[in-house]
Write a structure and sequence with these properties.
Elements: E1 2-7, H1 12-25, E2 29-35, E3 55-59, H2 65-74, E4 79-82, H3 89-94, H4 96-118, E5 130-136, H5 162-181, E6 185-190, E7 192-194, H6 203-213, E8 217-220, E9 226-231, H7 232-245, E10 251-254, E11 259-261, H8 262-276, E12 292-295, H9 310-316, H10 324-337, H11 339-347, H12 349-359
Parallel strand pairs: 1-2, 1-4, 2-3, 4-5, 5-6, 6-10, 7-9, 8-12
Antiparallel strand pairs: 9-11
Pfam families: GDP_Man_Dehyd
Cofactor: NAD(+)
Family: Belongs to the NAD(P)-dependent epimerase/dehydratase family. dTDP-glucose dehydratase subfamily.
């Protein structure tokens, strides 16, 4: 049975990846989920799998060298999928040091632990071991409005926020380990993800939550910043395929072919909510574009991101399956069906529960 070590598995993308892997492989694999449970980590995301015999949760900080080394010493880890990261740009502008600590030093800790566990006396590595570092398209900087301009794996890095700079730094560490030690790894750089379990500080769940509550819908600047949107399950599939079919030491861009302006996203959510809400639902009455409120632009706000996933399609056969019109309806339905989850997250009650639970151990 192959053993996967997933860091940040209680977060948005990590938990969706774990669900995807168990749906695909069931009892053929074992997953160890390591998460420190910051505000963005929520074990409610994994209630459906927590009692599986082939699933283990360990609360640990990826910067804790002793804790991470112990996990490798006590388990024969075959695959590492490294999601754990601070990821919200606005928070990085307020407190950059946290992002450097987690994203850079945490990645170094993970690399060193895997290298120590997998390296043979002759400097080569045990057969079949792989480390996948999950990164972002934001490391490439900003594109202009030319619809023919895209990010490729060869695009020079040009990060503009503390968040993207910390992720670019972590990417460079992984590249250095691949080059220096021939460490068995890959890097994926993905576009904006959306779907179930996303923390509601991010655009799509924030707009859904605020719209249903009749609150203002904040939009930065003129609302014309463009992002490429990727349904999270498509991303999970891409990660699995890179682990199984990707060439070692390579970087693969993972994009959704769903470029949208931020204002388009907000209006689409309002329109979709109007479609799915019953006429008798009182929340439908206040749904209108009047809720949109333009606010001062974010510092260093990149204008446009657009991923070219040509390489991953040509070499591995992956391409996005969920177009935005379908994905946003699935996402809204999930939040409708899981309003208790949303209320628990926005209240912060889950954080207090975890602190109490783990402080007693």
């Amino acid at each position: 049975m192959r053993t996967y070590l997933v860091t940040g598995g209680a977060g948005f993308i990590g938990s969706n990846y774990i669900h995807y892997m168990f749906k695909k492989y069931d009892n053929e694999i074992r997953i160890i989920n390591v998460d420190v449970l910051t505000y963005a980590g929520n074990l409610e995301n994994l209630k459906d799998v927590e009692n599986r015999d082939n699933y283990t949760f360990i609360r640990a900080d990826i910067c804790d060298r002793d804790a991470i080394n112990k996990i490798f010493e006590e388990n024969d880890i075959d695959r590492v999928v490294h999601f754990a990261a601070e990821s919200h740009v606005d928070r990085s502008i307020v407190n950059p040091e946290v992002f450097v600590q987690t994203n850079v030093l945490g990645t170094a800790t993970m690399l060193n632990a895997a290298k120590k566990a997998w390296e043979l006396p002759d400097g080569t590595f045990k057969e079949g071991k792989k480390f996948l570092h999950v990164s972002t398209d934001e490391v490439y900087g900003s594109l202009d409005d030319d619809p023919n301009a895209f990010f490729y794996e060869t695009t020079p890095y040009s990060p503009h926020s503390p968040y993207s700079a910390s992720k670019a730094s972590s990417d460079m560490l992984v590249k250095a380990y691949m080059d220096t030690y021939k460490f068995p790894a890959n890097i994926t750089n993905c576009s904006n993800n959306y779907g179930p379990y996303q923390f509601p500080e991010k655009l799509i769940p924030l707009i859904i939550n605020n719209a249903l509550a009749g609150k203002d819908l904040p939009v930065y600047g003129d609302g014309k910043n463009v992002r490429d949107w990727l349904y999270v399950e498509d991303h999970a599939k891409a990660i699995d395929m890179v682990q199984e079919k990707g060439r070692l030491f390579e970087t693969y861009n993972v994009g959704g072919h769903n470029e949208k302006q931020n204002i388009e996203i907000v209006k689409t959510i309002i329109d979709t909510l109007k479609e799915v809400l019953d006429d008798s639902d009182p929340r439908k009455a206040h749904l209108s574009y009047d809720l949109i409120k333009y606010v001062s632009d974010r510092k260093g706000h990149d204008r446009r991101y657009a991923i070219a996933p040509d390489k991953i399609k040509a070499e591995i056969g992956w391409e996005p399956e969920t177009m935005f019109a379908e994905g946003i309806k699935k996402t809204i339905k999930w939040y409708f069906d899981n309003m208790d989850w949303m209320q628990n997250v926005t209240s912060g009650d889950y954080e207090k529960y975890y602190e109490k639970m783990y402080s007693n151990k």
